[in-house]
Structures are given as C-alpha cells and as structure tokens.
Specification:
Order of helices and strands: HEHHHEHEHHHHHH
Shape: elongated
Largest sheet: 3 strands, parallel
Strand content: 5-15%
Length: about 220
C-alpha cells in the first residue's frame, strides 16, 4: 500500500508528548486532550470539501450530517492521523478512559478518518474496539537492520575510522566495503544503546549529523 495515495486527504502527525509538555504536562490532562481533538478537527476541516466548509462549525451533529452526505456522494477523502507517543496521557485507568473517549468521539464524527496510536502502554477499552481497533506489537530491529537504518539517516559519509569501538572493527567482515561497514557498525556501542528502537536510531543519527567533526566513538563515550 502507498499511504500517500490511499490517504488522499493527507496524513498528519501529532506528537502527544510535545503537546503535553506545552500544555503543562500531566497535571493538565483535559487541556492536552482538548488540544489533540482541536488539532484533528482542524486537519479534517482543512482537508474535506463540502458545504460545511463554507460556514462555521456549530455542533458535532451538524458535522456528522455533513460527513454522511459526503460519504453517500463518494467525495469524502480518506485521512490518517498518527498520535505518536501517547504514554503521557495514559498514566492511569481514568486517563485511559478519557483518552479512549476522545478517540471514540473523533472517529464517530469523522467517517473518513483513520488513527494510528503509538504507546508503550497497552490501552484496554471496548470503545476503541467499536471502531475495529487492532493492537500491533512492534519488535525491535536486529543489530544489522539498526545499523542500516542509522546509515540511511546519517547525512555524512561514515568510515571505519568512526567506529573503532566496535569489537568487529579490526577484522574484515565482508568483501563489500558498504556491507563490511554495516556489520561493524551493527556491533558498535552507539547502535547497541538504541536497543533496536527506530525512533532512538533516528535520534542517534540526528546527534551524529549535528556533530559533523565528531566520530561515533566519541559520541558513544560522551553519552555514557
């Protein structure tokens, strides 16, 4: 599936942990959820076309009726919102119920909208199952795949000089220089510290890109 083609209405990422940080953290839970809801509503209004776009949104009922008419007409565009790192609003059972209620209301009102929710916390809610929700556990990347992902996000050229802390740096692992570097990098402490988590790998690549004159060995020792 090509997500940009399938979701012709667009894809929007909302970093929930950042929203929570700007809204006062966990003490301001309701404001965080309200902010998320408003961002989703704004995204949908920007994307969809119809009569309700030319007049103020006065109620959820009016919005739902407008959406249904577009579904019937076949003009409603599929949209995807990714709610990333939701753990900050899932600390307690009450928090989970409030979050599930927001998700339920959003999906009920926006018929062409799909949500992807990422969190380390497992959300148990019948309200999410109402909309066909499914849970997927993501496994960590292997060291080799982690190294490959890191290399693809690092903008500067890496060499064996950068990764001498790798226990494999002193011996040839593969006749192909690129494959050899990937295998050496896979055993490097900086890669091991990401535990195969893609987001951690991308963040490590950002640190490498920011420190253009610093080797990976130096970064690994400075982060201990």
């Amino acid at each position: 599936m090509y997500p940009r083609r399938y979701f012709a209405g667009g894809i929007r990422f909302i970093h929930v942990n950042q929203v929570a940080a700007t809204r006062g953290g966990l003490k301001d839970q309701q404001h965080v959820l309200t902010s998320i809801r408003l961002q989703i509503d704004e995204f949908v209004r920007e994307t969809e076309h119809g009569s309700y776009e030319r007049q103020p949104l006065t109620s959820s009922l009016f919005y739902a009726v407008a959406c249904r008419s577009q579904v019937t007409a076949g003009t409603l565009k599929r949209m995807l919102v990714v709610l990333d790192e939701c753990d900050t609003v899932l600390s307690t059972d009450a928090d989970q119920r409030a979050f599930a209620s927001v998700v339920h209301n959003v999906l009920t009102n926006h018929f062409a909208l799909k949500l992807i929710i990422t969190a380390r916390t497992t959300i148990v809610s019948d309200r999410l199952q109402t909309h066909g929700g499914s849970q997927f556990r993501l496994t960590s990347l292997s060291p080799t795949k982690s190294a490959d992902l890191l290399r693809r996000h690092v903008t500067r050229k890496l060499s064996l000089h950068d990764v001498q802390l790798s226990p494999l740096a002193k011996t040839l692992q593969h006749s192909n220089p690129v494959e050899n570097l990937t295998r050496v990098l896979a055993a490097h402490p900086l890669v091991a510290r990401t535990h195969g988590v893609p987001k951690a790998i991308v963040q490590a690549a950002a640190r490498i890109n920011a420190a253009t004159a610093t080797t990976l060995d130096h970064l690994a020792t400075s982060l201990v």
